[in-house]
Design a protein that fits this description.
Blueprint: H1 14-25, H2 29-37, H3 42-52, H4 68-82, H5 93-98, H6 102-110, H7 117-127
Helix pairs in contact: 1-2, 1-3
């Protein structure tokens, strides 16, 4: 655990992984959103996805042989999109993009390749392909 009380990037807390897994299995997007905003490490997120039976990369149609920081980029992109919204408040990709600040849009441009295909399409519609 870091000095800030948040987990290190490679730290895996079994209770957090189980909470993520339970939220995913129960299709509880509000709980999952709360967990992601509360300080989940990339390693915890990836571990929960693996236990759930999906590689984070499989959600994006990419190879499982991603560079280690690709998972971090995926995670950062999703957290950036969710921002202060609860996932249950968003009806689709347009809702997640509606509240983006210019700074967050610039950061998403940097993370474009890590965005899910639907988010890439919405980004392209609004801002053009980077």
């Amino acid at each position: 655990m870091s000095e800030s009380g948040l987990p290190g990037e490679n730290e895996i807390r079994p209770d957090v992984v189980q909470a993520i897994l339970a939220a995913m299995a129960g299709n509880d997007s509000a709980k999952l959103n709360d967990l992601l905003r509360s300080g989940v490490s990339t390693a915890e997120y990836v571990e929960a996805m693996s236990l759930y039976g999906e590689s984070p990369a499989s959600l994006y149609g990419e190879s499982a042989d991603l560079a280690p920081d690709s998972h971090q980029q995926e995670f950062d992109a999703l957290r950036l999109l969710a921002g202060g919204l609860r996932l249950t408040d968003a009806a689709g990709w347009p809702d997640l993009f509606d509240g983006l600040t210019p700074e967050r849009v610039l950061r998403l441009r940097e993370l474009y390749d890590a965005l899910p295909h639907g988010a890439q399409a919405e980004y392209n519609r609004r801002y053009g392909h980077p």
